[in-house]
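WARN retry 2 of 3 for item q-0093 after timeout on previous attempt; input resubmitted unchanged.
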Amino acid sequence: MTLETPQDTEQGAPLSISEPSSQAVAVLCGSPEGRGIRVLDVSAEYVQFWGGERDHWLGAEPCIVHQSAANKQLLNQLNNALACGKLSLGCSISGLDHADEAPCSNAPRPLIEWRVTVMSMPGYADNVLVLVQRDITKRVEKEAELKRLATTDMLTGLMNRSRFDHLLKHELGRLNRYVRPFSLIMLDIDYFKTINDSQGHDVGDQVLRALATLLEDNLRTADYCARWGGEEFMILAPETSLEQAAQLAEKVRQCIRSAQFPGAERVTISLGVAEATPSDTAKSVMKRVDNALYHAKERGRDRVAS
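OK item q-0093 returned
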């Protein structure tokens, strides 16, 4: 729950009880008989959202959130704030609430955004509390999907280079603060151009997708894997020394070498390994792991160099 002061809220025309169907509205006030917060009026959407009849809600205790204990606590806080004069005109209290049940078993529980604002409304002698509730489930899902698309490689489903860059900088900061080691593994498919030229780009794409799946299946839970670009992939291994990372890289190399790939003969990879140090920047550690990969290729490919 967050409290916003008047300057944080938009000041304008009084809020009408006739709101769009995407939101439920209730006008509330403190009861002069000391019975706490009570409902003065509700929109049809509020009645539809919470059930019952409009007359049932008039003078009743409002529902702001679904969990009864949390709702009671919230109403007590509002009532005490009103009694102490802490909620002046324009102040807002807001939060999020999960509905008790989803519309169907496979759907997530609806996420409800609510806001209570102290307002002056025509027809009421005193300032009132206006409760507005919106179902923002689809909006949140859409935002999550947009974020996923922005940080995911579309072909392989691995994280993309942009997200990996952000992760690398975060791990470097953690290394500097807490001296927690981590290593990078950079790998490249050997002679991938030959696969594309001889078998076609469709087969090349299948190889990339299959390789991504093999990497995810054979890395540890804590490891991160990204498609770096083309046929290059990056692995970030937290809490991992250079020696441990080299062992992990060798395990991956053998796994790829023995795997069957759709439409292609044997596929091998070359891997470079580098451990980050407190003096490293993202550029310097990436340069070292790239040099290690270059040495693996110079020495005949299908090998690990560190």
